[in-house]
Design goal:
By secondary structure, the chain is an alpha/beta fold. The strands form four sheets. It has an eight-stranded mixed beta sheet, with helices on both faces. α7 runs parallel beside α9. It has a single domain, classed as Alkaline Phosphatase, subunit A (3-Layer(aba) Sandwich), CATH 3.40.720.10. A hairpin with a 4-residue loop joins β14 and β15. Bound molecules: calcium ion (CA).
Length: 510
């Protein structure tokens, strides 16, 4: 259907709804996704007590969001960028969609070399809205469904859904009406307007150069601020055309390169942080200012009461050091960080505000996972029965937002990463994992070994109970294997034997 037809239909539908007044207006939806932000990289405590990191970072607008909404203390994503983003807009678990590692170039795996494992033919080209694109998962993306329901759909920032040269690299092909600065790459060459965000004059741009912000080139402006201004301009457009909006505000911050946001940098140096820590903290505060500016805009336009704000990060803070030097963040008390099966890699800071629905200042300890955003947002938009090409895994957390009910304690969550990310650290390496209740089982593909943790008693995953709790290991390995079989989860091959790495239940028997 042509865009002009959609706008015309929406005009009549929305006018009819306004005249009939039988239904409340569709809520606006602001999904604020930060890149690589850790669980402790904020002045909002997500643990049961504040940590030194909560005192290091200053995020007053996240604090405001927490006061006005609900914080989730056990919200999960996948350990790296693309799998999370594909799960988010398809509702599929990574084991099912097979975009299990990060994407960039067509038909090119980003897996590192491994001494004993050969990695599977995963969907290196990412998500595709079209059939017949090799090594992609074809799915009906969330923004396309929202657009059909008359939402004005805005993509702002990092996309990272599909490889260069495939339809999925362009957010406009995924159902967004507007694309601001999104493309295949998952990091910016530069955050600085003075450096044209990495676009070198007279040269072919690097794959990391941020597209589409030419009007800010040569200006002393940080990328986070330029994106926020452009997002607000797009929200003005939504106001003018009278459509509810879906703003996917997906900041490049706080991903590497760790560059100082000059508006906030000096004060962190003054507190005694070293250079890279201070640069990182300034990027976090710049991101937080963006959140505050958007909230102020909603207030000013009188639409805050009819806007749902969901705040999330796409994986844990980058605590592993890839190329020497000091880490700029930690995630403690959680173990490890980005790329890891441990909580530091997958547990995220999550906040939701929805006036009249979500109880202000509330906290929720129920666990949920990134693919749950898909059915939740559809339900918020009244689209829970929307047909999709793909079979989904997510479960709506709207009951949790309403304060009704709890996550079924028997509900298993799954992670699957048959890949090599690169940096080393606890819990990093090809793995599959399951959480059920307070128990988490991790199965490492290279060594065929297990870790079992009780997260309620051992949030830092220091005590591996796999050797002592054989029955629990067996039960969880069974649940994990059954799911992996059901989605035909891809496994690495052992180079020496040529054998596919066995599923966890099988590994226990061998
Ligand atoms: Ca990320």
């Amino acid at each position: 259907m042509r865009a002009s037809h959609i706008i015309l239909i929406c005009f009549f539908l929305l006018e009819f709804a306004a005249v009939g007044n039988s239904q409340p207006p569709l809520p606006n939806i602001l999904l604020f996704l930060v890149d690589d932000m850790g669980w402790q990289d904020t002045s909002v405590p997500f643990w049961d007590k504040p940590t030194p990191f909560n005192r290091r970072f200053y995020t007053p607008n996240m604090e405001r969001l927490a006061r006005e909404g609900m914080q989730f203390t056990q919200a999960y994503a996948t350990p790296v960028c693309s799998p999370t983003r594909v799960s988010l807009i398809t509702g599929m678990n990574a084991a099912r969609h097979r975009v299990t590692n990060w994407t960039l170039r067509k038909n090119t795996s980003t897996d590192g070399q491994h001494p004993s494992l050969k990695f599977p033919e995963w969907n290196v080209n990412g998500l595709s809205p079209e059939a017949g694109i090799e090594r992609t998962v074809q799915a009906t993306p969330l923004p396309a469904l929202l657009k059909q329901a008359c939402y004005f759909t805005i993509h702002c920032g990092k996309a990272h859904f599909g490889a260069i040269g495939t339809p999925g690299e362009n957010p406009l092909n995924l159902g967004f009406d507007v694309n601001i600065a999104g493309h295949a790459a998952g990091a910016p060459q530069s955050y600085r307007g003075l450096e044209n965000f990495g676009n070198e004059e007279g040269e072919a741009p690097s794959v990391w150069a941020v597209p589409g912000l030419e009007k800010y080139h040569g200006q002393d402006i940080f990328l986070t601020e330029a994106l926020t201004r452009e997002a607000i301009a797009a929200l003005d457009q939504a106001q003018e055309n009278g459509r509810p909006f879906f703003l996917y505000m997906a900041h490049y911050a706080v991903h590497t390169p760790i560059m100082a946001d000059p508006r906030f940098y000096q004060k962190y140096l003054d507190t005694g942080l070293d250079s890279i820590e201070a640069r990182y903290a300034s990027m976090v505060e710049g991101m937080d200012k963006s959140l505050g500016d958007l909230m102020a805009y909603l207030d000013e336009k009188g639409v805050a009461d009819n806007t749902v704000i969901l705040f999330m990060s796409d994986n844990g803070g980058l605590s592993a050091v890839a190329r020497g030097g000091e880490p700029h963040t930690h995630n403690k008390p959680l173990s490890s960080g980005k790329g890891s099966a441990h909580e530091g890699g997958i547990r995220e800071p999550m906040l939701v505000k929805w006036p009249g629905v979500v109880k202000p200042g509330s906290s929720n300890d129920n666990y949920l996972i990134i693919e749950d955003f898909f059915p939740t947002i559809l339900e918020i938009a009244g689209l829970s029965k929307a047909p999709t090409i793909q079979q989904t895994d997510g479960v709506s957390f709207l009951p949790l937002l309403r304060g009704e009910g709890q996550t079924d304690p028997d509900r298993p969550l799954f992670w699957h990463f048959p890949n090599e990310w690169g940096p080393q650290g606890p819990g990093i390496g090809a793995f599959s994992a399951v959480r059920q209740g307070n128990w988490k089982l991790i199965y490492y593909h290279a060594s065929r070994t297990f870790e079992l943790f009780n997260l309620k008693r051992d949030i830092g995953e220091a005590n591996n109970l796999a050797g002592r709790k054989g029955r629990k290991v067996k039960a969880l390995a069974g649940i994990l294997s059954t799911y992996m079989e059901s989605v035909e989860a891809q496994m690495p091959v052992e180079k020496e034997s040529g054998q596919v790495v066995p599923l966890p239940s099988q590994a226990l028997k061998e």
